[in-house]
Amino acid sequence: MSRDMKKLTGLVAATFTPLTTDGAINLSVIGSYIDYLTEKQSVKKVFVNGTTGEACSFTVDERKRLAAEWCLQGKGKLEQVIVHVGCMSIKDTQELAQHASSIGADGIAVISPSYFKPTNADALRMFLKEVGASAPDLPLYYYHIPSMTGVALEVADVLNGIEKMIPSFKGVKYSGTDLRDLGQCVCYSQSHNWSVLYGVDEQLLGALVLGVHGAVGSTYNYLGCKMKQMLSAFDEGNMTQARDIQFKCMDVITFAKNLGFDVAVNKQVMSELSGLALGPPRLPMLPCPISKAQTIAQKIKDSFCLT
Ligand SMILES: CC(=O)N[C@H](C=O)[C@@H](O)[C@H](O)[C@H](O)CO
Ligand SMILES: CC(=O)C(=O)O
């Protein structure tokens, strides 16, 4: 298995999951989705089956077929495909981890179980160890998203000593807002050459100042190009330009949140902006309001002067 174990850095799009109008997974869209990301957004790394991908609403079999298609279609076009494997059942998670390895994924990420929750860092490390052991050849990233899992253990505590338990551990996708904890994660990660990837797109610039190595998010699907400009401005020390782009991003996300911005609306916004037919969300309780998405898409176009 020839695998490029390159450190994960830069912008990573957390992909949406294309569905047919009657709610089945639609693998046929993934090829053009990859072309859109690579050609129109210059984004060459993806995080599949995450929050944005509604993974927790899909079966293990559907998740395997999605991950396999992203890896297959991404060959020669995408630089890295990271597969999220978190499920309530550790057996399902391990099955998905093994599968990710068998299809040539470049890494796996996992959320904490969120029904029965780990009550301390030791317990969470033990869980991560069991997951890592199922795919020891793949980089493993812990996906911290307390707003969804309700597991708000300090990640810096979870990292402490984890390298001795999990040789394949390679970093964190941090979707929390505690900048002190985030900073301590970056600090600890430096000596292990791990990646800390930030996941709250509207405040990425603050995380860059603390030294994160990249970002995973939903908005990089349609604002990848613009946010890349922010990363370049930051690298060049052009803080005025970096802030200008971040403020625009904050403004459109605040606008969207005030209208009601969930994964279903976000998916429809992506369909509007990209022209890809991503279809409805999986859960029937989630709304599919085209007019709301059109309003948000128009706001994004106006703010960022997109055509
Ligand atoms: C809860 C959620 O979906 N978070 C995403 C990633 O972690 C983000 O990319 C957000 O969609 C984005 O920051 C907009 O709020
Ligand atoms: C944003 C992100 O990383 C996710 O959708 O999982």
Automatic annotation (TrEMBL):
<keyword id="KW-0704">Schiff base</keyword>
<dbReference type="GO" id="GO:0005737">
    <property type="term" value="C:cytoplasm"/>
</dbReference>
<feature type="binding site">
    <location>
        <position position="52"/>
    </location>
    <ligand>
        <name>pyruvate</name>
    </ligand>
</feature>
<comment type="pathway">
    <text>Amino-sugar metabolism; N-acetylneuraminate degradation.</text>
</comment>
<feature type="active site" description="Proton donor/acceptor">
    <location>
        <position position="143"/>
    </location>
</feature>
<feature type="active site" description="Schiff-base intermediate with substrate">
    <location>
        <position position="173"/>
    </location>
</feature>
<dbReference type="InterPro" id="IPR013785">
    <property type="entry name" value="Aldolase_TIM"/>
</dbReference>
<comment type="subunit">
    <text>Homotetramer.</text>
</comment>
<feature type="binding site">
    <location>
        <position position="216"/>
    </location>
    <ligand>
        <name>pyruvate</name>
    </ligand>
</feature>
<protein>
    <recommendedName>
        <fullName>N-acetylneuraminate lyase</fullName>
        <ecNumber>4.1.3.3</ecNumber>
    </recommendedName>
</protein>
<dbReference type="GO" id="GO:0008747">
    <property type="term" value="F:N-acetylneuraminate lyase activity"/>
</dbReference>
<dbReference type="Pfam" id="PF00701">
    <property type="entry name" value="DHDPS"/>
</dbReference>
<keyword id="KW-0119">Carbohydrate metabolism</keyword>
<comment type="similarity">
    <text>Belongs to the DapA family. NanA subfamily.</text>
</comment>
<keyword id="KW-0963">Cytoplasm</keyword>
<dbReference type="InterPro" id="IPR002220">
    <property type="entry name" value="DapA-like"/>
</dbReference>
<keyword id="KW-0456">Lyase</keyword>
